[in-house]
Amino acid sequence: MMPLKPLLSAQFLSFMVSASGIFTESLATDCGINIPTFQTFLVYTLLSLFTLKLHKRQYVNDPSIDSKPYRICSLLGSTPNSLKLSSPWYYYLLISFLDVESNFLVVTSFKMTSLTSISLIDCTSIPFVMFFSKLLLSRSYIPPQYLAALISVLGILLIILSDTFYPLTSSTGTTSPSPLLGDIICLCGAFLYALNNVLCEKFVKVDRYEYLGMMGFFASIISAAQMVVLEREEVEKLFVEEGRCSSWRSGGLIGGYVVSIASFYVLVTGFLVDNSAALLNVSLLTADVYSLIFVVIAEKVVPGWLYFLGTLVVFWGVGLFNYHEKSQEGGREEGEGIGESDKSDLLRSRSPSREPIIEP
Predict the structure, then answer these.
(1) Residues 225, 156: Cα–Cα separation, whole Å
(2) What pLDDT does residue 282 have?
(3) What Cα–Cα distance (Å) separates residue 128 from each residue in 28, 100, 131, 243?
(4) Burial class (CB in 10 A: 0-12, 13-18, 19+), 43
(5) How confident is the model at residue 358 (pLDDT cuts 50, 70, 90)?
(6) pLDDT over threshold 50, residue 327
(7) What sign does the CA torsion over 210, 282, 28, 19 have?
(8) Arithmetic mean of pLDDT, 32-39
(9) Which residue has the higher pLDDT, 336 or 153?
(10) What angle do CA 50, 8, 282 make, to 5 degrees?
(11) β-sheet bridge partners, residue 70
C-alpha cells in the first residue's frame, strides 16, 4: 500500500512553492517590482530567529548540547555564551550562499521568461539531485525510481508542449522579454537548488533547528549585502514612489511570498528528516500544475488537452517514486534491524556444531 503521509506532506510543500511563485510573478508582471533579494532577506530574517531556540537549549542545560563539538560566537557577543554546534559554522555559510543565490536566480527569472520555462527548474533539478545524493550521501536508487522520475519529467514536458501549441494568453497581453536568458538562469538555479537540497537533507537529520537558525543567520547577512549592491534603488522606490500597484497590494504580495516560503523552509526540514531530497524534488514537480490551475482560474482560460494529460502523468510519476522510495527504505530498515546478537545466532545456526564460531 502506498504511504499517504509523505505523499500528502510533499504535496502541501509543493502548494506552498506554487503560492510563492504566484506572488512573485504577480509582483513582477502586474506591479513591475523585481526585488528578489529583498524578498528572501525578509524570509531569512524570520528564520534566523531559530538561533534564539539554540540559545534557550543551552541555558536550560539540554544534555544533547554537551556532545556538540563546534562553537560559534554568540549573537550576545560574550565567549561563555558562544553557541555549540553539531557542524562547523563555515558549512552553514556555504549552504546559506547556495540558498541565497538559487533563490535570487529563480525569482529573477520570473521577469524574463514564462511560467512554463521556469518549469525547467523542476525538470532539471531531478537528475542533479539524484547525482548529488549518490555523490555526497552514497544513496542508491533502483530502476523503478529512475523510471518514476523520468515519467514525472515527461509529464512536465507535456505541459510545456501544451503551452507551446495551446498558449494561455494573459489578459494583460504581456510577453516574456528575454526567454533564452531566463531559461539559462533557470538551469543555473536548478543546479544550485539540487546541491542545496542534498546538503539540507544531510544537515537536518543532525539538528533541523540548528540548520534553520544558522542558515537564516548567515543568509540574512549575505542577502542584505547583496540587496545594498543590486537592489538599493528598487527598494527605495518601493517605500517612496507609488507604482503600478497600490502599496497595499504590493505589500500583500510581498507578505504572501514571505509567509509561504518561510513556512516551506520550516516544514521541509521536518520532511527531509524522514525522507530524501530526491523524493522532495520529484514531488515538487506538481507545483507547476497548481500554478497553471491558478492561471486558468484567474485568467479564465482553458488549456489544451496536453495539459490535462501531462498533469495525470506528473501525479502518476510522483506517486510511483514515493511508493518505491518507501519500499526501499523499508527493506533497508529490515536489514538494519538485525542486531549483532541476531547475526551471531544466525551464524551459529548455519555453522557445524563441532567447529568453533569465530566472530569479528
Answers:
(1) 36
(2) 78
(3) 28, 18, 5, 39
(4) buried
(5) very low
(6) yes
(7) negative
(8) 85
(9) 153
(10) 85
(11) 85
